[in-house]
Amino acid sequence: MFAYAARRLMATIPLLILASFLIFWTVNEIGDPRDKLAACATCDQSAYDRLVDLYELDKPVVIRWGSWLGNIAFHGDMGTALSQGEDPVKPIVITRTKNTAMIAIPAFLTIVILAVALSVYSAIRQYSLSDYTITALSFAGIALPTFVLGLFLQVLWGIWIQDWLGIKPFYVTGKHTASFGDLVSSIVLPVITLSAVFIGAESRFGRSAMLEIINADYIRTARAKGLPERRVIFKHALRNALIPFITIWALDFAALLGGSVITESIFSWPGLGPIFLTAITGQDIHLIMGIVLVVSMMAIGFNLIADLLYGVFDPRIRYD
Amino acid sequence: MIKRRLFKLLALLFAFALIAAACGDSSGSDDNAGGDSTTTTTEASSGGGDESTTTTAAPPETTETTAGEAMSSGGTLIWAHEQEPPDLHLSDPNNNLTITAWILQPLLEDLYGVDSTTSYYPELLAEEGVLTTNDDGSVTVDFKLRDGLMWSDGVPFTSEDVKFTYDTIMETDGEDEDGNPNYILSVSDRTGLDTITDFTVKSDTEFSVTWSDFFAGWKGVFGNILPAHALPGGAAEAEEALRDWTNAAGDILPSTGPMVFDSWEKGVSLKMVRNENYHGSHSPDAVNTGLAYVDGVTINFVPDTDAQINALKAGEADMIMTQPQLQFGERLSSDNQFTVASTAGPVFEHWGLNLLNVHLADPLVREALAYSLDKSEVMAGLYTPLFGDLLPAEGLGNTYWMSNQPAYVDHQTEWAGAQVDAAKTKLEEAGYTMGDDGFYTHPERGKLTLRVGTTGGNALRELQQQIIQEQMKKAGIEIVIDNVPGGAYFGEKPFSDEALAASASGGAEGDPTIWDITQFAWVGGPWPGGQSGAYKSDSGFAPYGFVNAEFDARSDECDATVDDATRADCYNELDTYVTTLQHGDDGLFMLPLTQKPSYYAYNSERLVSAGVAPDANLGGPLSNVYDFQFAG
Amino acid sequence: MSSAAETVLSVRDLSVSFPTSEGTVKAVQDVSFDIRAGEVLAVVGESGSGKSVTALAVMGLHPKSAEITGSARFGEHELLGLDDKTMRRIRGDEIAMIFQDPMTALNPVFTVGGQIAEAIWIHRDIQKKAAMERAAELLDLVGVPEAKRRARQYPHEYSGGMRQRAMIAMAIANDPKLLIADEPTTALDVTIQAQVIETMKAAQDATGAAMMLITHDLGLVAGLADRIQVMYGGRIVETGTTDEVFYGSSNPYTRGLMSSIPRLDAREAARLTPIPGAPPSLINLPKGCSFRPRCTFRTEICLSGVPELEEVAPGHSTRCFHSGDLPELEVMVEVHS
Q: Is A218–C105 a contact, with Cβ atoms under 8 angstroms apart?
């Protein structure tokens, strides 16, 4: 299995390199950091020159991309962020990723637990009132725009019922001096907002996967053996249903870690989402590349983990 | 076997998850040199004092009780805002954001401030500077600073600081290949500084400056004075220090204003604390001329404007200041706890007509447009509902002076209101006949169709266009609205090399050969000399096709006029060249519409006094932060 | 063979119907039979005749929506309508079932040995480890080579025949009194079928269990069964000993079945004679005798109603108006001993 993982990782490196070039080139085509200076008629030449120096704007795209890549590969330096007062990119991206992880990971756990629970429940109570209710809620979760849910929760907890259960509708500032309790209470609403759509979609998916499995022959065998229904569902059926869930989870977790612009903006959460937007509108090429690199690596990483997990959970799959 | 595989992988995953979730001490994020000061949103209103007044008036409001309680001080003012500056180096042309200026406003003071009538007043100066014109045409001003000025760290503020600022801005390390001086400090605009020939310090409070020629904007030249004692490394050190407000030794830069920079958690909030050594404001609008009442100000960066309103309503913020929106009216002004107010800002909207267009070249047609344009309807329809009677109901009638400035004169009263018949008369006089479709047409020029463009995506602006479109339709003039998104507006034709800043900090005009009429906004100020730049023909770029040698000459004369009052009248005269037909058939191509108000909302239950100073020079909500006071 | 042994399962007037959107499906109607200890009863018929449905009803494996009436006595229990808890104790322990498709009958994510062991420790007070060892023994018993190693393998590593043998091992793990085998060889290669049949014989001998063998493969029946029960359209149409049904059938349908089997000793170029037509819809059964539309011996009387199941000889019953009028059968060479 490790050999397989190693091979896969090797194979993704050229992929990442190619992707990074495409994105670098695209961002470059969109605009030039010097554009803003064009609006300033009385500006000095020195302002232009600084930018040209800093970002090697006088060289062709390939060279610039090459130096960016070289900096990362040999010096671990991700460049300087034009839109962040020329702070170095790496600490920014790392901090922001950690912040996003603070809501992404709890959201993921919530999603996993609820999606599985709802799928199983819906499947064993197919066509019952609860099944229909859960279905309706799932569709609502999928259809409800994130910003509506987020703002609604904020109004609910910030204005209508304030401080209920101590839950905070905004990011608690002074994060590093805030208590753990404060931190937890400010996570709740963004986590709910983030999870809603995923729970909706995954439980739909899980329900049909479970239904298919429940009608399989081996479940009939299990019952014929005299196994209690609980064991039939939770051991025999669910174990099989988890396999397709693994792909979904890998994809969804990667999406969560990529940061949600909407949720994070509404709750003033300093994660990857808002800063990615700032980077794009500011044509901050180094920051954009830094974020894209990190997010792609996570996506690739999680896909690989998902594949490996298959190997663990599905004995029919071999990695030679 | 499967169990072993499983455990191995789970262990790996857990480790990964822990690392990812760990809120470690992320070193990069805290620019915290001195530890956090008050971060608590203290319920300063102990016992819930309801002293709120619910008027929607603009200017500062106070209640007598608080004056009697003297320093009912304390509390941190929380301001939620969506924009975060990349850094605090205002002059860096890469960082030319309004929020940066707003943050610096309470930190560093200028020699001259700008008051609510958008006029200069002596701030750090004890009195007006004394100006003498020398024999050789150069001009010398003798400045006298106030006594007892002090930096927040206790070091006295002297003439040396002003000289230091000038030297730092002008410091170079040689020349570049074109022979231009290689300045070290990034500064976008050295106009008015690069013509200084002499700077003499006479004493701690007296110094004089000589310019080679009279520069009409001299009062605004010495702004954001830097601390000489905190930047021993000169321009090189300043260039870096200004970004994160910390000098090479790691000390926070001291302030002359009512607030001192404290810390900045990027992406989250920026904190300032009260300057205990503040010498008090000299602004004629200031009610509190001592130290600020509040302990400090925290700016929370809330990217979503709906969330800002939520923050305000939830008590997570005391004040917001942002683009005007309907939600302000719906959600806030009906709630007694909040006050929604506005100030007349220095930005004004206008329609500019392209004299090169075949129809618009005819002054009769332009008059017809002026007659059919009903500014008061635009005001009543768009601005009064949001801003009340803050702005003149008849709209703006001058492109040099704005309605809150003393020199203001409305030059377009002749065409005020909807004078549809007068408009039609003019058109028919010009040889147009009414077509079947309700629009006029000319035998040679064709149908009277005019394209107007603006930066799209702004609901208020688009509504404005539509209202005027309807008005002109009544007079048989067809207006076609053709907007492009903001960025493209400037890039539709490659932005010409001769593009001109129409004012000290305004943007430039789009190329009117694409449009027949542009709807745009300019920024006025206490010294409107920059306006001429958009009209002068020798600038190499005449956005409206206006070429008038008489205007050019008169404009130069005005700029050279030393006396403030005379100069003010001079500018008024210049304005009549472009807003009326008094000086010839090529006039009346500018239709100023109205000033754009700044809009803010604050919690009037908690804040007893929060008169955000009329934002007369785009100074932002902290222009009079010393007047903010929480209910005791 | 059996002598006057005790009755293990006694089914009376069993009817099963399913409500569907198109109407009620009368899958089984008024089925009655007995199985004695150690006896092999073959239940034969085409697809849709109700064979599997009968078995599943006895096991209690139908969904709740099924309407089941009648009686199925197993020892002291009345199986129909028995509470879940008791039924679960009986299933897999006293009555075991082997299903048709071995490829899908085992759970792909658990080891074969583990699944067999599960059947054991669920019903017995025994450590899981010991159950695993017993599972390996059982696999050995049914002829799976290298049983200990194989027990730790997964179903996808077994061939079809081996899987079916594993199923058999699982079924006999707790020495059941009754084994129900639903088409156990249908999904297997012919060559493997023989092996599996042998295994089943051995298993039955070893446990002395009664077996209800459901199949449409008459060859299989010939090799294993003591008695045969032919079903058509949800009803039993003939029942008797293997010899009686094979060589002396008094039912046109059964005769049709017999003559449609290809025979090794047939004359060259003899054509197969299939039964014309198709099995009836269980929602809309034809008026009168269900087989009438396809029967070569039909007359007016066949429309009058469903014929009763009547004895033509002791232990040999048939359901046909013309049972007495059917022509003599050629006596065929016995193909089994």
A: yes
Domain residue limits, chain B:
120-235, 347-595
Which one, of B598, B592, B597, B596, lies nearest residue B375 by Cα? B592
B chain contacts of residue A154, beta-carbon cutoff 8 Å: 307, 310, 314
Strands B296-301 and B76-81: parallel
Per residue in B77-126, pLDDT (tens digit) is 899 888 888 888 877 766 667 788 889 989 999 999 888 888 889 999 99
Domains in chain C: ranges and CATH: 1-94+177-337 (3.40.50.300), 108-173 (no CATH)
Residues of A in contact with C169 (CB under 8 A): none
For chain A, give every domain's residue range: 2-90, 94-313
Q: Is A236 on the interface with C (CB under 8 A)?
A: yes
pLDDT of the residue at B627? 86
Under an 8 A CB cutoff, do C109 and A314 touch? yes
Would the pTM of this model clear 0.90, i.e. be above it?
no
**What backbone phi and psi angles, to 5 degrees, belong to A81?**
-95, 110
**Residue C219: predicted pLDDT:** 78
Chain C closest CA to A309's CA: distance in Å?
13
CATH number for the domain formed by residue range(s) B120-235:
3.90.76.10
**Which two tokens mark B475?**
């007079």
Cβ–Cβ of A217/C105 closer than 8 Å?
yes
Check pLDDT > 60 for residue B38: no
Task: Provide the b/e sequence for B220-257 (b: ≥16 CB within 10 Å).
Answer: bbbbbbbbbbbbeeebebbbbbbbbbbbeeeebbbbbb
**Interface with B, mutate which of A95, A102, A149, A151 (most B CBs under 10 A):** A95
Residue-wise pLDDT tens digits, B1-37: 455 556 556 655 555 555 444 433 333 333 333 333 3
CB distance C251 to C263 below 8 Å: no
Instruction: Say which of B22, B23, B93 has its CB closest to residue A43.
Output: B93
Q: Which chain C residues have a beta carbon less than 8 Å from that of A224?
A: 59, 61, 91-92, 96-97, 99
pLDDT digit string (tens) for chain C, length 337 residues:
444 578 899 999 999 999 988 888 989 999 999 999 889 999 998 888 888 999 999 999 998 888 999 999 998 899 998 898 999 999 989 999 999 888 899 999 999 999 999 999 999 999 999 999 999 999 998 889 999 999 999 999 998 889 999 999 999 999 999 999 998 888 888 888 888 888 888 888 888 889 999 988 887 888 788 999 999 989 999 999 988 888 888 888 888 888 777 766 666 666 777 788 888 888 888 888 888 888 888 888 888 888 888 888 888 889 888 887 777 766 544 444 4
Q: Are B166 and B193 in contact (CB under 8 A)?
A: yes
Per-residue pLDDT band at B325 (split at 50, 70, 90): low
Measured between CA atoms, the residue of chain C closest to residue A232 is C107
Asked whether residue B610 carries a pLDDT value surpassing 70, the answer given is no
Sign of the alpha-carbon torsion through C224, C227, C232, C233: negative
Give the three-class secondary structure for B62: coil
Q: Chain C partners of A217 at a C-beta cutoff of 8 Å?
A: 99, 101, 104-105
Q: Is the pLDDT of residue B68 over 50?
A: no
- On the question of pLDDT at A264 being above 50, the answer is yes
ipTM for the predicted complex = 0.85
The domain defined by B347-595 folds into Dipeptide-binding Protein; domain 3 (3.10.105)
* Residues A266, B244: C-beta atoms closer than 8 Å: no
What is the DSSP track for B297-330? EEEEE---HHHHHHHHHHTS-SEEEES--HHIII
- Min Cα separation A248/chain B (Å): 17
When scoring B87, B191, B266, B489 by the number of chain A Cβ atoms within 10 A, the one with the most, hence best to mutate, is: B266
Of B20, B25, B313, the CB nearest to A101: B20
Note the CATH number of domain A94-313.
1.10.3720.10
Q: A245 contacts in C (CB within 8 Å)? A: none
CA distance linking residue B383 with residue B462, whole number of Å:
13
pLDDT band at B342 (very low <50, low <70, confident <90, very high): confident
